[in-house]
Sequence to fold (390 residues):
Amino acid sequence: MRKSIRRCLYLLVFVTLLGGAGIIYFGFYCPEAVCALTSTAPRSRYKVGYLKDGINQFHLATDEIGRPLSDALRSATGLSFEEVTAHDFQFNIRGHDVIVFLHIQKTGGTTFGRHLVSDLDLDKSCQCHRKIKKRCTCLRPGKNSNETWLFSRYSTGWKCGLHADWTELTSCVDDMMDRIEDHDIKRRYFYITFLRDPVHRYLSEFRHVRRGATWKTARLLCQGRPATREEVPLCYENETWENVTLEEFMSCDNLALVGCYNISLMSPEERANTMLLSAKNNLKKMAFFGLTEDQEISQYLFEETFNLKFKVRFEQHNQTISDSAFSDIAPSTLERIKELNYLDIELYKYAKSLLHQRFKKMSNEDPHFQHHFDNMGHSQFSWSDIEDEA
Fold:
């Protein structure tokens, strides 16, 4: 496994670290004047804004509601939760709307991805192919029946790279959709993802790496170029890091920087603060995100946000299974894991609060909410298989 998989790009969101510091799920908006090895953009183009909830952010000049003035940038990054849920807006599966699933490893994304292609109650269901492993065709009902409405691992494959981050997706999805459908049309994109408790996710990744996983095919780009081995060296010498000990896994250093491998641009504290604050802001912009630990709430929010219903109910992962993983871990080791993932932990606290805020808002406005939950059945799938997911 790599020493880190931290991507600092022109618009870096969803920074993924494989190793020392776990996952910083949503990265940051990194102005070129900060990220570039040689500054080429005047700082006057950028400013620090302050949201009502106290989250400051780096961003391009924005309009009166905080959206980037660049039409191309606004289109690429999709519509936010607030835009999707405002004024009776509806996801148009018959038009040119596309859900883009950003799959963060070890967060339950494989199971949720299966739900997307197998369990939605649609006029035209996805057709999954037995001869093509893990691939389904998800075409629209109606006149645009030759177009796909879902960009995900199971519907399109890893077209933008294995576990592509936000920057890779937003810079790749539209062009890739044009290639898949062999024509250029104007689409609306809706980015979704799932997050998981960082300590549980970290230990799950450790066990996965210990079994031989590497994610070597994941791309590591910076300002449009791949990172060199000197910039991002491996933590092991063999083909895999199979049978790695937890101590060895924790000792794998991470790049922990903002500045495209140039650590002189910011102090460690400034880098951490920039990433965390902007990560929270970027999370707010997602059309939908769910939490592995809050299955019923996550399912309800997805269904209400997109006006799409699942035929099965999500079943909450049995927490005792995850808790058992801590039984053989010394308290001092657990504290070290928390230290390594402290940014992720802070982001997760914010994510949980934000999820519950959205749930409260939607349920209060939903006249059928109580009936909805009174009639909830049981899922055919259990999230207890999450430990085996890629």
In short: The longest strand covers residues 188-195.
